[in-house]
Amino acid sequence: QVVHAHKPHFMALHCQEFGGKNYEASMSHVDKFVKELLSSDAMKDYNRARVYLDENYKSQEHFTALGSFYFLHESLKNIYQFDFKAKKYKKVTGKEIYSDTLESTPMLEKEKFPQDYFPECKWSRKGFIRTRWCITDCAFDLVNIHLFHDASNLIAWETSPSVYSGIRHKALGYVLDRIIDQRFEKVSYFVFGDFNFRLDAKAVVETLCAKATMQTVRAADTNEVVKLIFRESDNDRKVMLQLEKKLFDYFNQDVFRDNNGTAV
After folding, report:
1. Closest C-alpha to 131, from 101, 92, 100
2. Tens digit of pLDDT for each residue in 211-253?
């Protein structure tokens, strides 16, 4: 519907977590999806395409689960893509799909963030893919990015800004430094993907539970904090908010929807 409505001449689609959370079982469906997309009626006027899929989930050191799709309308002439190894542009013809080991593909740059960037140094599928294009003498980079999420609500609410916000900021800086360094000519760039933007958890909790009292629940075996319960000071000490590593359960969900959540 979007293609029919806007009829773009150059279309870029950046995907993250390609194959889903259970990517080992789901990757088999990816190839079918890509083939159906390329052959769909909506895409019949796009006679050139480049598809880059990071499907090599067995390589923990490199796997990002990123997918970058680029479609060029038949009316566009003289479209070139940059070869980062040869350091020159090559004319784009036909439709090509690249997957598995994208590290050996010279038409892009793919990186997973350094391990010390990851919270608690635990590998996850976060990184970026960069391609460079030239259309009618206008050169530009397209960067598919996936930044870090808040791994634990209990950690996110401890400081303002949260430690995760700092990690996202550091990772974004890493990407920007890479795409404007001295290895290649500087060109304009567009960075889009999943920035994993989050509200300031501490400020949100303090706003929602300004007059509440907090109860801390700890694990019996480790004494680790596993749950925070915020109760109203009066009104029979009604539970307002329950906070766990993966749970944010506020009693009045309308506050997040009314007036586009301006209350928080």
Report:
1. 92
2. 999 999 999 999 999 999 999 988 789 999 999 999 999 999 9
pLDDT of residue 175: 97
What are the DSSP calls for 198-214, one per residue?
Answer: ---HHHHHHHHTTTEEE
Residue appearing with tokens 């000490």 = 237
Residue 25: which pLDDT band, with cuts at 50, 70 and 90?
confident
How deeply is 177 buried, as exposed, middle or buried, from its count of CB atoms within 10 A (0-12, 13-18, 19+)? exposed
CA–CA gap between residue 1 and residue 4 (Å, rounded)? 5
pLDDT band at 121 (very low <50, low <70, confident <90, very high): low
Q: First-to-last CA distance in the chain? A: 34
| Omega prior to 161 cis, within 30 of 0 | yes
Single out the residue of 99, 48, 111 nearest to residue 74, CA to CA.
48
Q: State the Cα angle at 123 between 85 and 96, rounded to 5°.
A: 35
Backbone angles phi, psi at 229, to 5 degrees: -120, 125
State the residue for tokens 């925070």. 228
Contact 81, 89 (CB under 8 A): yes
The pTM of the full predicted model, rounded to 2 decimals, is 0.90
Secondary structure of 85-149 in HEC code, one letter for each residue = CCCEEEECCCEEEECCCHHHCCCCEEEECCHHHCHHHCCCCCEEEEEEEEECCEEEEEEEEECCC
Q: How far is CA 43 from CA 11, 52, 133, 174, 251, in A?
A: 10, 17, 20, 35, 46
